[in-house]
């Protein structure tokens, strides 16, 4: 519990929004399952409205990726819907968010997929993020 001073009634006890302790190298929110990071959320409370997007703590995203996660799955507990995206897509197409809950990275709903298979099919490759100089093979294509 966090104890704060309330504006009208003096001290107010509220449960902390963030879990401050996590196993070393693990995201503080959600859990790692094989090669994806699962976050169970209340969509009414956690989904961004403008733009319509999901946002995640950048420290958690970094920890999940360093622990071997390639994908993020957000499970909306209220609707039962799953939203999948590769970490590559989140990094390539995401936008910075800071609305009072720390540094986050948001990804618009149009970039999330309903299944892992669809997320894999639409995964951004590193070449799309870094279109620097490339050497082509003699018969076309890239090295």
The gist of it:
The protein is an alpha+beta fold.
Description:
This protein has helices at residues 43-46, 58-66, 87-93, 116-121, 126-129; strands at 2-6, 10-14, 31-33, 36-41, 53-57, 71-76, 82-86, 95-97, 104-108. By secondary structure, the chain is an alpha+beta fold. It has a single domain (24-124), classed as 3-Layer(aba) Sandwich (Trna Endonuclease, Chain: A, domain 1). A four-stranded mixed β-sheet has the order 3-4-6-7. Strands 5-9-8 form a three-stranded antiparallel β-sheet. A two-stranded antiparallel sheet has the order 1-2. It is globular and about 50 Å long.
The total count of strands amounts to 9
What name is given to the CATH topology? Trna Endonuclease, Chain: A, domain 1
Strand content: 25-35%
Number of domains: 1
Shape: globular
SSE series: EEEEHEHEEHEEHH
Strand order of the largest sheet: 3-4-6-7
Compute the number of helices: 5
Helical percentage: 10-25%
For the terminal residues, how far apart are their CA atoms?
55 Å
CATH architecture: 3-Layer(aba) Sandwich
CATH class: Alpha Beta
**Sheet of most strands:** 4 strands, mixed
- What integer value in Å does the Rg equal? 18 Å
Low-pLDDT stretches are: 1-21, 126-131
Q: Structural class given helices, strands, pairing?
A: alpha+beta
What value does the average pLDDT take?
A: 79
